[in-house]
């Protein structure tokens, strides 16, 4: 099978000399190139009863690595499956105008903060308004920055509870949203547009934005003025009976990078051929979107690598954020809403994460992590002197954790 890793192994050394890359991009590229190779060292996997023992190369654990995404994606989903409220959810997509892309490229962290704040603020304000819902919803927002052809396409997917929690005359109640309409789309678009413009202008005013080389602060003011009169792409997709389907859809994009190895078709002397969905606008595709029509795209190898690396988020940046009932620190409120919806309260301490063996088995890797002879859970030993522990693992530790 063709892999992204092969491309980085064959081309990255010369590619790096031709292109100025940020520290985050170089780190991601080295992780993608070296994942599960001798460069990252090895660990020993063994049966405690002595039936088997083998060495395996360490994983890089970078969030854009397609090889390392299975366990982290399943862990993320597991956490959210247990937290989501047992009610229908809407899926809303906020897309930023393409004219703002140069500002995103030079200000990824600040731009993402503005986008999250504008979208969540617009939804919380309108849904809190008596005219629409008059209650506090739960929002789970995820940032995506790519289109199917790996071009920059900065948009936010938001999972919104179709209802909210509000005390009425001192009594807590769950207010369900109208069956076929969360909010008027145009009103939501206008509030979002106003908030994102205000966020960016305020950031510019405070000197928090880096001005791209071919433009100026005055031009951004002019651009934002002009964009204030245009229609932005905000979509309220259909309503889902439960949020898990949308969360599963989001999880596919959160870990493992913008393109999976399965979409690679051919490495040619002059570039890379890969599969794309026919529609370039991802935002029209929800979990039930028609993703069956495909086309192939060809990009020069350098262009392919550049496009892929532009989607590496700055280190430590949160690409998923919860608001309202789904915000961190709102456990008490979330539990009250759960009670109203007939769900048991969340435990005070998060439940123990499932083992990597069970996550791999759930993802289709049956037999992983168990002794072929006695079925006992295999243990992992990082103490091998020739090995380097994978990033995030303390050296010299023997434990049951392993990325797969
Ligand atoms: Zn990896
Ligand atoms: Zn055994």
What this model shows, in words?
The chain is of the alpha+beta class and 404 residues long. The chain has eleven helices and 14 strands. The chain has helices spanning 4-18, 23-34, 69-83, 101-106, 108-128, 185-205, 217-227, 244-254, 301-309, 331-340, 356-362, and strands at 42-46, 53-57, 89-95, 138-146, 152-161, 163-168, 171-176, 234-240, 264-268, 271-277, 294-299, 320-324, 379-381, 398-399. It is globular and about 65 Å long. The structure holds zinc ion (2 copies). One zinc ion binds next to loops.
- Bound molecule types: zinc ion
**Strand percentage, roughly?**
15-25%
Please count the helical segments: 11
Structural class: alpha+beta
Q: Residue ranges: pLDDT <50 for 5 or more in a row? A: 280-285, 389-404
Q: State the separation between the terminal residues, measured CA to CA.
A: 18 Å
Largest sheet: 5 strands, antiparallel
Level of helix content?
25-40%
| Helix-strand topology string | HHEEHEHHEEEEHHEHEEEHEHHEE
Strand adjacency order, main sheet: 8-3-5-4-12
Q: Please, what is the oligomeric state? A: single chain
* Global geometry: globular
Report the average pLDDT across residues. 86
Please, how many domains? 2
> What value does the Rg take, in angstroms?
23 Å
Q: How many strand segments? A: 14
Short overview:
The protein is built from eleven helices and 14 strands. It is of the alpha+beta class and 404 residues long. Helix 1 runs antiparallel to helix 2 and helix 5 crosses helix 6 (185-205).
Primary descriptors:
11 helices; 2 domains; four-stranded antiparallel sheet; five-stranded antiparallel sheet; 404 residues; globular; disordered C terminus; alpha+beta; binds zinc ion
